[in-house]
Fold:
Amino acid sequence: MNTLNKRFTAPLQTSPNKGGWTYVVMPGSAEYFKAKGLVKVKATVDGLPFQSAFMALGDGTHKLPIRSELRARLRKKTGDSVTIHLINRLK
Structure:
């Protein structure tokens, strides 16, 4: 497990595909993580703890899915901004 201490704010986006995920995109993530694939993290979103995995988009960025239960607790919807604080990179 690698300790991280990175914060970024981004708007929630939802894929237009049926059943599409809601996620945030981290600018410069491939360079930051030195990875082009899946990156598992422990983090907070607007102060609430969660674990998820960044998925590469193929353009030097990754998307981080934010589950509906967590969005409901945050009272956030597509277009609203959230602040992500990355705490640890998981194996």
The helical segments are 29-33, 68-74. The mean pLDDT is 95.
